[in-house]
Amino acid sequence: MRRLMIAGFLVAAAPCAWAGTLTGTARTADGQALPQLVVSVEGAAGQKHATTGPDGRYRMDALAAGEYRVRVDAPGLTLDGDTRVTVQGDMRLDLLLKPAPVSERIVVSATRGEATSSALGVSVTELDRERIAEREPSSFLDLLRDVPGVSVARSGAVGALSSAFVRGGESSYARVMIDGAPVNEPGGYYNFASQFPLELGRVEVVRGATSSLYGTDALAGVIHLVTRHAEPGEKIGGSAEAEAGENSWKRGKATFSGQSGKLDWNAGLVYLNTDNERPNSAFEQTAGALALGLRLAERTSARAFLRGETSTAGTPGAVAYGRPDLDATSDHDEVAASLVLRHARGRAAHALHAGMTRTGQLSRNPLDSGSYTPRAGDLAAPFANSDFPNPAGYQNDTGRGTLGYQLDAQLGASHLVSAGADVEHENGDIGDRRGPLLSPTRTNVGAYAQDRIAVRSRLFLTLGGRVEKNDSFGTRAVPRAAAALRLGPASRVTTLRASAGAGIKEPSFLQSFGVSQFALGNPDLVAERSRTYDVGIEQRGFSDRLRVEATVFHHDYREQIAYTIVSFDPFRGTYENLGRTRGRGLELALDAAPSKRLRVGAQYTLLDGEILVSTSSSPLYAEGQPLLRRPKHQGSLWAQASAARVSGGLNLLLVGSRSDSDFFGIGLTENEAYARLDARLRVSVAHGVEAFAIAENLLDREYQEILGYPALGRALRFGVRYRSREPRP
User: Fold this and answer.
1) 33: which DSSP letter?
2) pLDDT higher than 70, residue 45
3) Is the confidence at residue 378, as pLDDT, over 80?
4) Whether the Cβ atoms of residue 105 and residue 123 lie closer than 8 Å to each other
């Protein structure tokens, strides 16, 4: 009888010994959820693994009672707090991960959801809030100069026409988003001239075709600007700063942010005025940014963003070749608004997002400044250049409205599946205001699916695709696949990665709907396409104080739209899918933190860009020619140091020679290499108050990013900044 009683007791007690459950969330210090993170425990029941879901939650069932050691395999992130837990019944352990000296990057744009970059096979660069603030850039374009695989070109000084090229693609081949809302003009182009780093929380640059998630425009990659929002527990406070310097530079900025109950907010306002040193090159801008967050329930939230600016810039023309146009101006207005509603339940998360962007540009030239013959040294154009006055102006107003839904669901122990759909409506009012304006509209609908697979903590796969129905080019399907493999111990992880994808881009409004006989729209244009591949390696070492990356890439751009002449008498021109180009090369990047007070970095890009198919009569666009304004060699080095009450940094930009043209017939076909050194210094003078000095082009080098448009010489700026609270360390 006694034996039977003991046996019965053991049978009854056995379920209790194995009934333990461990649950919790994995987040960073600023509250970001960490999905698809492998959490491991080792102890009484041996070793078990769980993968976090879309909102960073994990769950382990059937754990034997006892003590366990918790481990998270995430290079560049370390567990903050006790890594041991005693399981007795149902237990909860929330995991807070703090950044290493060279931290892991948490990105959203690569998967349309939070992801650690080491678990992705795609090439992505993230510039966080601290890096942006340290750089003290005079324009957003300065941030892109330090990103591997990206080259930029500006027609003169701050506020002038500005373009970005990703991996040899055209300036319209990257989808540009602000807080999740696309801001490209229909057809892909985006002018960065009026974009400034006001209250940015981070900037993400994804390289490689990303149309499998975003549809049109993402042939070469994605550039995503995210407005900073208040962090969990952030106290109410603000900042104010004033800055002045050479070229009549005057800038003032104020911010206000905080959290109260279920509401958090961050708002910023900036005013800038500068004459940019040269006649009719003045630029004036007022801009604002706002982020609001509301926690509706424990796992339900709403977040809204608004950014806008209005500016006026003088447009003197290619002054390196002759007289400036003293009366031509360009007015620019831009607004981007977005709203995201998110609800998580169990292993699934639902998100409803809406966005609206509007960009308006009006170019005026009231007076006839007369003709002149462009000259460069001893060379002269074969014909005179005439001014074309237009007091009414040329208008280019475009807008996009977007609405979408996304479901993220954890399936099994290793799959994180995302599926969604978007509707995007485009419209515009374009043309010479002396006559009727062109007012086209276009609606695009897309559906996508993606599976992120974690094979233990070593192998990560991403598979996805999208079907896009576009009013101009019809229906196309675009896939993407990526893989990341981690090797070695946590202290010196080697990550191998590879990705391949396809991209599509719609025609511009003028290319599809133009009515002029000189540039007649072609409704039969097909989508411009890309096929992109890359293979890379990332090496970490010295206790996460060093990260080195190398990536080989190959981008093939097909069905490129080109202008073609149909007849000369009468003269008629239109657009056709005629071109094909290639961009291939190597990207290198280094990020190191030798000590707590010193951080250094470098990047280099080798680009072999070539025109493969062309019907242009211009030798500049002949087959075999290099790509216009995209340097073969480009690199940068930067350093940031601090000591007690003083901090400072240097940025050295090196840009090689590149193919270009004066476009006046002078005969210039190459733009010279240049180097530019920027420096900054901060001094804490009292509690919350610091003085700063910034020098751009410190060595006063003469160069032109675009032929005919000289860049500014040395420019010194000085300012004072007050913060009601210290920035996050």
Assistant:
1) B
2) no
3) yes
4) no
* Count of CA atoms in the C-beta half-sphere (13 A) of 231: 12
Q: At which of 99, 121, 143 does a domain end?
A: 99
Amino acid at 527: A
The dihedral through the CA atoms of 151, 154, 160, 161 has a sign that is negative
Are 457 and 591 part of one and the same domain?
yes
Is 127 inside any structural domain?
no
pLDDT the model gives residue 668: 94
CATH of the domain at 71: 2.60.40.10
Domain extent, residue 656, equals 225-723
Cα–chain center distance at 153 = 17
Q: Are 556 and 532 in contact (CB under 8 A)?
A: yes
Residues in the chain, how many? 729
Q: Do 338 and 354 meet the contact criterion of CB atoms below 8 Å apart?
A: yes
The pLDDT confidence band at residue 18, using thresholds 50, 70 and 90, is low
Q: 509 — alpha (psi -120 to 50), left (phi > 0) or beta?
A: alpha
- Across the range 356-370, mean pLDDT stands at 95
Q: Where are the alpha helices (DSSP H) in 149-234?
A: 211-214
- Which burial class, exposed, middle or buried, applies to 225 when counting CB atoms under 10 A from its CB (0-12, 13-18, 19+)? buried
Residue 122 lies in a domain: no
Structure tokens at 113: 């959801």
Q: Look at residue 2 in the predicted model and tell me its pLDDT.
A: 47
pLDDT given at position 14? 44
How many independent structural domains does the chain possess?
2
Q: Give the mean model confidence (pLDDT) for residues 499-510.
A: 96
Q: What is the DSSP letter of 728?
A: P
In the structure encoding, which two tokens stand for residue 388, read together? 């074309």
Is residue 321 helix, strand or coil? helix
Domain assignment present for 193: no
Structure confidence by residue, pLDDT tens digits, 622-669: 999 999 999 999 999 999 999 989 999 999 999 999 999 999 999 999
pLDDT at 728: 52
Give the whole-angstrom CA distance, residue 638 versus residue 135. Answer: 9
| Residue 501 counted as domain residue | yes
Residue pair 76/118 in contact by the 8 Å Cβ criterion:
yes
Task: Determine whether 600 is exposed, middle or buried from the number of CB atoms within 10 Å of its CB (0-12, 13-18, 19+).
Answer: middle
pLDDT band, very low/low/confident/very high, at 447 (cuts 50, 70, 90): very high
**3-state SS string for 370-383:** CCECCEECCEECCC
What is the CATH classification number for the domain harbouring 387?
Answer: 2.40.170.20
Whole-angstrom CA distances from 493 to 106, 202, 542 are 17, 25, 10
d(CA 591, CA 103): 10
Residue 56: CB atoms within 10 A of its CB come to: 24
Q: What separation in angstroms does the CA of 411 have from each of 55, 349, 405, 591, 711?
A: 14, 12, 19, 36, 54
- pLDDT at residue 729 in the model: 47
Listed residues 99, 129, 149: the one ending a domain? 99
Residue 118: φ, ψ to 5°? -70, -15
pLDDT digits (tens, 9 = 90+) for 190-227: 999 999 899 999 999 999 999 999 999 999 999 999 99
User: Percent helix, strand and coil across the chain, each rounded to 5?
Assistant: 5, 60, 35
> In the 8-state DSSP scheme, what is residue 119?
G
For residue 353, which of 532, 189, 112 has the smallest C-alpha distance? Answer: 112
Question: According to the model, what pLDDT value does residue 453 have?
Answer: 94
Global pTM reads 0.94
The verdict on 455 and 595 lying in the same domain is yes
Answer with the residue of higher pLDDT: 483 or 562.
Answer: 483
